[in-house]
Amino acid sequence: MRAVIVTGALLIAVSSGASTFDQSAGVILGVTGHVTVERPAAASRPAALGMRLEAVDVVVVERGAAAEIYLKGGGVVRLHDATRFEMPKTAAAAESHAAGARLASGSIAQLESGLWVLNDPQGSLLVSPMRGDAAWEAVDAAVPLTPRYEALTSTSAVFAWSGGPPKARVVVAKRREVVWRSAPTAPSTLLAADKALPLAAGEVYTWWLEPEAGGPPLTAGMPFRVAAADVMDRTKSVEAELGTLWKSGESQAAADYLRVAHYAGAGSWTHVLDLATRMPDGDARTKALSAAAAGLRLDSAKATALAALLR
């Protein structure tokens, strides 16, 4: 294995003859939305930047999601919207799949995900960051918890994630242009951007994590949007009215139920999760928690971890 420095990014070379790549058919270069990888005799796993793929794998792209895959030998495949992609079993099949999107031999490219790829004359693969051979079993990778796949009902954002290095930076982009980087922050922390990150009503943003010292991203980009101005105005009115109801002490439970209904309708799933954890046990609470986890696309363990941070 050899390493190469390209414009400051560390590229980990995996030659076509190296044992670590012999059984790999490709690697995940980009993920947007809900994408999983199925492997025989193993539980499906969320697709992640740098995840190695084997010839037996199937990449499942849910509706509204997308994925970009580098195929061994230089091909790049882009998948969109409700697609099941079986990894090619042979080099010829890989070339056929990627006929419309190939990296020329010896070329270097920076993908939209921020990763660097080199297709050398021998067909070697260089990508940064590249997860190790145990990536399939890795459980300590950084996972963005909030915001994700939801609408914010104010122009301020609070970020949280689990796992990863002791400290990382939050990076926020709008239409591929970075608009904010946070100070180094520990995982399992609620990081409020406050006025340092001015968000605009109706706009879509993406955030990811990068190492404390900077460099290639630690996670895939996580999309969120800011609700339209009328939704934010309605939220203020709802909170004012329900705040009065809550303070009266007459029907605090009803106030929380109405809040859940409002934020669910707005697609503000972190708010729904937070409110649901305060509701009494029952069918309504169970349904609200389930809806919040589904909206955030988090499994039950991650949703529980986020709920604990919000309390």
Describe the structure.
- The strands form 5 sheets. A 5-stranded antiparallel beta sheet has the order 1-2-13-12-11, with no helix packed on it. A 5-stranded mixed beta sheet has the order 15-21-20-17-18, with no helix packed on it.
- The protein has helices at residues 19-22, 91-97, 229-248, 252-266, 269-276, 283-296, 300-310, and strands spanning 3-6, 9-14, 24-32, 35-39, 42-46, 52-54, 58-61, 66-71, 75-80, 83-86, 107-110, 116-119, 125-128, 143-146, 151-152, 158-162, 168-174, 177-181, 191-192, 204-211, 222-226.
- A hairpin with a 5-residue loop joins strand 12 (116-119) and strand 13.
- It is built from 7 helices and 21 strands.
- The model is unreliable at 1-22, 98-103 and 105-139 (pLDDT under 50).
- By secondary structure, it is of the alpha+beta class.
- The longest helix is centred in the last third of the chain and has 20 residues, at 229-248.
- Helix 3 (229-248) runs antiparallel to helix 4.
- It starts with a strand and ends with a helix.
- It has 3 domains: 3-137, no CATH class; 143-226, Sandwich (Immunoglobulin-like); 229-310.
Please name the defining characteristics of this protein:
disordered N terminus, Immunoglobulin-like, 5-stranded mixed β-sheet
